[in-house]
Amino acid sequence: MDTPIIEFDRVSKIYSSGGGPITALHDVSLRIAAGEFVALIGPSGCGKSTLMRLIGDLEQPSGGSVRVKSKTPEQARRDRDYGIVFQAPVLYDWRTVSRNVELPLEIMGRPKEQRRERALSLLRLVGLGDFADAYPHQLSGGMQQRAAIARALSFEPSILLMDEPFGALDEITRERMQLELLNIWSGANPRPTVIFVTHSIPEAVFLADRVVVMSPRPGRVQRVIPVDLSRPRTYETREDPRFFALVTEVRECLRTAE
Amino acid sequence: MASDAPRFVPGEAPTGAVRAIARRALPALGVVTLLLCCWEGAKLLFAIPDQRLPHLGAIVETMLSRTQGGSGNLLVVQMLANAWATFRIAFGGFAIGTGLGLLLAVIFLQAPVLERGLLPYVIGSQTVPILAIAPMVVVGLGRIGAPGWAARVVVAAYLTFFPVTIGMLRGLRSASPESLSLMRSYAANPAQTFWKLRLPASLPYLFTSLKIAASASVIGAIVAELPAGAREGIGVMILNAAQFYNSRPPALYLAILIAGLLGVAFYCLVALAEYLVVGRRGRARPG
To answer: Which of B32, B55, B174, B199 is the least buried, fewest Cβ under 10 Å from its Cβ?
Structure first.
């Protein structure tokens, strides 16, 4: 692997709680290449969200080091290297959809016309071109999440952190959103690095270049499984025998991780 | 897109607003009618004498009678003039109390230490009956030569700032951890986080507080009229009507009715402001 964009070196994270310290992550080392799509999977409490939050400087490690583009996560955050998408869309309900997408650009002090233009082109990209001036509550859950993705992409961050972004959607919407995400991702230039937290095995395999399987208590990297399915991935990918083999492999790995 | 069927229909708003007003006004009218029926029904059923509960007709009659001496205006006109005098004081107190409440909320948000230190006194201040506070304020301000209306404004403000402080503080803290994390990921500075996230998120909470504060300020203004020796106002009017209750019971009921209507009118004013400011979000939020 050439120079990694994200590098974990023997990272641990310990929370202090009323009942004594809780080790959320133990001795995690991981290297992620630029432009790579990496899925983090594991049962609840395996620290996969914590891992993502350490990258994004939303939390600090208790031990070891995290480097992002050879910088500290804090420096990378100040340089606006991250776009974040949570499980909830977290759109500001007093802003129209397009003004939500413009928000990061507004904070970064971009001129008004440029913001609006960028928001409209992104909304067209995610299929919300007709809803720029609607308010978030007027959209369905899937549409809201698309707006959230557009917002995360608005300032062209080099890293996209996604914490179970499709976790609240129904299965049908979810599969369509996975395809759309891949289309957006592969269409972007330069292609962002994606860290995608999920607890859906087929979702991880369908989307990722590599699936990082984590085990709980304390959270560790159990195994990293490369996904050798060709791109672009389509609806047919999910019927590929190789897809099933990989899903089975991840599932087995998760079971032995207990 | 099929399962993502949009719920957004452009151009729906105007008729929606009319319908919303009708939806609110009709039940209110229904309740008023019901109350009026209960009033007359109770009088008939329990044979309550006019001295204790006058007929509605008698109240209307009193309303349209001329005042003795002075201007000779209709009584209702005179009472409305008194209500206007009270409203001016209440509004002044409301404005000052709201400003103070907002200031305290922002200070408490920035410095939780101050919140822990000061909040008990703020709460304590509201536990002391306003009837005990009002004369102290009047005497205190009178001693330093302040005009009589100033004391009344201060008492109204005293009752107003508390709900605003509490509601606004809650509102400023209502932004979800994720929405704050987003701001952090954009490397937003504290001022941007305040103006673009915390403040707009707090508005529904603020308006809920303002509605409570509006009626509280009217109560403050009325109560303060008594020790302040005001010459006009609803408090003065109620006191007068009570003195002459034996000879003219309907006047007191009328005064009370007008006091209530003033509170409702003030509330509606705040609700209108709310509609203009946050109504377009189109969704009721907890508050």
So the answer is: B32
DSSP per-residue string spanning A109-178: T--HHHHHHHHHHHHHHTT-GGGTTS-GGGS-HHHHHHHHHHHHHTT--SEEEEESTTTTS-HHHHHHHH
CB-based burial, A100-120: b 16+ in 10 Å, e otherwise: bbbbbbbbeebeeeebbebbb
Residue of A nearest to B281 (CA): A94
Residues of B in contact with A103 (CB under 8 A): 186, 196
- In which order are the strands placed within the sheet that holds A4-17? A20-33, A4-17, A63-68
Which CATH fold topology does B76-279 show?
A: MetI-like fold (1.10.3720)
Q: Is the distance from CB of B128 to CB of B137 less than 8 angstroms?
A: no
Q: Would you list the domain boundaries of chain B? A: 76-279
Say what the pTM is: 0.84
Query: Residue B69: which region, alpha, beta or left (left: phi > 0; alpha: psi -120 to 50)?
Result: left
Over residues A79-132, the pLDDT tens digits come to 999 999 999 999 999 999 999 999 999 999 999 999 999 999 999 988 899 999
Cβ–Cβ gap B7/A88 under 8 Å? no
Q: Which residues of chain B are within 8 Å of residue A138 when distances are taken between CB atoms?
A: 6-8, 282
